[in-house]
Amino acid sequence: MTLDYKGATEKYEPTLGLEVHVELNTNSKMFCSCATEFGAEPNTQTCPVCLGLPGALPVVNGKAIESTILIGLALNCSIAPYSRFARKNYFYPDMPKNFQTSQYDEPICVDGYLDVEIETDEGPKVFRVDIERVHMEEDTGKSLHVGGSTGRIHGAEYSLLDYNRAGIPLVEIVTRIIPGTGKYAPQVARAYVTQLRDILRSLGVSDVKMEQGSLRCDANVSLAPIGSGLLGTRSETKNVNSLRSVERALTGEIERQANRLEAGERIIQETRHFLEESGLTRPGRSKEQAEDYRYFPEPDLVPVTPDAKWIEELRAKLPENPADRRKRLQKEWNVPDSEMNSLINAELVDVVEETIKLGAEPTRARTWWLGEISRLANEKEVAPTSLITTAFVAEIIALITSGDLTDKLARQVVEGVVNGEGSPKQVIEKRGLKVVSDDSALMVAIEAAIAAQPDTAERIRGGNIPAAGALIGAVMKATGGQADAAKVRELLLKHLGQG
Amino acid sequence: MAAISRDDVAHLAKLARVEMTPDELDHMATELDQILGAVKRVQEVATADIAPTSHPLSMSNVFRDDVVKPSLTNEEALSGAPAKAEDRFKVPQILGEE
Ligand SMILES: [Zn+2]
Fold it and tell me: Which domains does chain A have, with CATH numbers?
C-alpha cells in the first residue's frame, strides 16, 4: 500500500536541513573588478582572475565581507575574529580555475538562529532554526548543454560556458539539522526561506530573486520511525527555485522516502533534482565525499579579521527585523490578521507603508493596493508594484480624500496611469475626469430627475428618506458618475425640504 | 610505510582528470612519497608556540573597493579557448555528472 503524505508523517519523523545560497548585489565580483550585472552578453564580464588564467591574483571585495557580516549579525551569529578562504577543488567546467574559492573550517559567521512562525492545527507556533554557519564563496559559470535527444546533460554532445556569473560573491547559509517539526517540516522550511529572504532584502545585500537564481535553496531531509530517536539517511534536493517549490519538494521527498522505507528499501545519500512540473524529484550525481574536494587554505588571500569596532559599526546599521516590523505596522494600521496576511502574501506591505508615508489615508492606501491595483495586476499577470508608483497612488488617494475624485473616477484614473496615459493629473485632464461639484450644474440634473420621477420625489417630501436612493442614482447616471454622491444627496434632500 | 600509495595517486589523477599509465603511477607514487618525506622534516622544527600559517606575511583584511573596472572583451576572453561557439567556451560533453 502506498503511503500518502499524511500516512508518511504519521509513521515517520522528518529531520530537515537547509542550505541557502545568496548572490550578493555588489557592483563588482568577489575577487576581481568585473561587473556583476544580470543578463549581459555571454563572456563580456570576465578577466584573467575569474577566468583562472595563470598568474592572476585575487583581491577580496570589502563590500562583500561587510554584507556577509551584516547577514551573520541579522541571523544572531557570532562573527569569527579570524577566518580564511579555502580552495574547494573539483573538476567541472563551470569553474575555470578547477577550484572554487570558498571557506572550509573557518567561516566568517557561526552559531546563529532564526525563529520562524507557522500556522499549526493548534494555532501559530514558533520553531527555532539554528544556523550553523554563514560563509563566503563565489558563484560558478553558467553551462548550456547542447545536442542529444532530450537536451539533458546525459545526452548532450557538448556544453557551452558563459563565465559572467563565475566569481560573483555568494554567501552560503547552512542550518543545523532541524528536528521536531513533524508533519510541518515543509511549512517550516518555506517559512524559514521566506523569512530569510525578507531579512536579506531588508539588509539590501541581495536582489533575492529566486526565479533569477540570486537566492537558491537546497533542502535536506531524512526520515526515521517516530519515537525511534534515530537519524535516517538524508537526500539533498537541489534546483528549488521558488518558495512554493521548497514546500512541494519536501512534501514529495518525504512521501518518496517513506514509501521506500515501507518497501524495505534503503535511502541512498544522494543529490536529487526538483522537477517543477510534477513536484517530484529525480536522482542527480551521487554525493562526492568531502575529502574529495581536497580543501586547503587559499594561499593567494590573507585572512579576514574583523575587529570589534567594525562589527559594532555594522550592527548599528542593522534595519528592523522584517517580522517585528510587520507586527508593528499591523498594530499601527490596526488591521486584522487576515488583512495583514493578504498584504504580506501579496508582497504589498512595503508599498502600502510608503504610500501612507507619502500622505495617503491608511485605509484607502491598503484598499487600493489590495483591491483595484491588485485586480489589474492579476489581469495583466504582473506584480502590482510594476503597474503604478506609490507617489501616483498617494496622489490619487489625496484627490479622493479632498472630494475631487469619487472612487469610481479614481478607478478610471488608475486605469489610465496603468495604461501609460501619463500621471494622474494628465489622465484627469485628458479624460476630463473631474467631480461635478458645481452646485448649479448638479441642480439642473437633480431637477431633471425629480421631473422624471415625480412620485418618488413626493414620497421623499413626505419623509421617506430611503427613497432618495433612486433619484441620487438617476443624477449620478446623468452626470456620468462624475458627481459626488454625498453632495448630490445633500442638495436633493435640501431641495425637497428634508435637508 | 609509504605516506602516499599508488592507489592514492590513481585516485587523485582521476579527480584531476589526468590520464596516467601504470608506469607513471608507480613513478609518481615514489616521487610524491619522497617529497612528502622531505616536507615532513618541517614538523620536526615546528613547535607548539608556532601557529600554522597559510601565508608568509602576517597580514589580514586586504580588501578592494567595490568598483567595477573594464573586463576583457568577448573576443579577448575566448582568444585562448580551444573551441568556442555562440560567444561561449565550448567543452566536450560531460558524462555521468550534472
Ligand atoms: Zn573578473
Answer: 5-310 (no CATH), 320-424 (no CATH), 439-495 (1.10.10)
